[in-house]
Amino acid sequence: MNSTTNRCLAALLFTFFLKPIITMSDVIIAAGNGWCPYICVDPSTEAGFAEKPGIFSEVVIRILADHGHSLKLASMPWSRAILETRNGKYNAVFGSSKSITPDFIFPAIPQVTYNMCFHTRDHFTWQYTGINSLESVRLGIVQDYPYDDGGEVDQYIKQNTNNHFIQVLKGDDRGALLRNIQKLATKRVDAIIDSPYVINHTLQTHQLTHKLKIAGCLKTGEMSIAFSPALSSSKQYARLITEGMIKLQASGDLERIQNKYRFSH
Question: Is the pTM of this model over 0.85?
Fold first, then answer.
């Protein structure tokens, strides 16, 4: 067989066997739930995201798409998402931190930052001034939801879950937040915790006229897609996200995505 024939054969092998493998895109399935305007879901769509998927979702989708991969969201309660991803059923949990899932594989750069703030009724005079100030209010929370990455507020909630001052709601996180807002408005709790952007989005989406105010905030948190420790592909995906964040920041595209949602966190 001469050299020309060898080159032709090699070209045929690349075309029919190797090329499909190289260009084949992965579908990455992340488990989590909605937290709009960071993560905006629509279970009726194939990917599980709303038309405007949210700032966190859009950043991750954009980076993965640049590498030929697509992202799907499997919506479920947070505690189940962590458990089943840890076991390798899903590629990642969608929106975590190293203090929440320390054994997971993380990109070197978080995709968004956020603030968790206490919210009260407009004329309620209480203010969060530290962990001891929580002892005088009934706090409405969502089961298994992290508020300060395992810090003193999460520890306080864990230690006091069974008493009168911590009222826990179970179920879908989006529905639980709505019910907590309604409990706050009807004076069944004195304060709730969440991102002001998420609170305001929930009020607007459901056309609620409740007047709430911020009564103190916790330190700024970081949110990232966190890949399963059980899957060999996780380190590669985490590296792609890191490289993608560097490119988005350098090009200005990250700021443009943020501006679509009218905030810079």
Answer: no
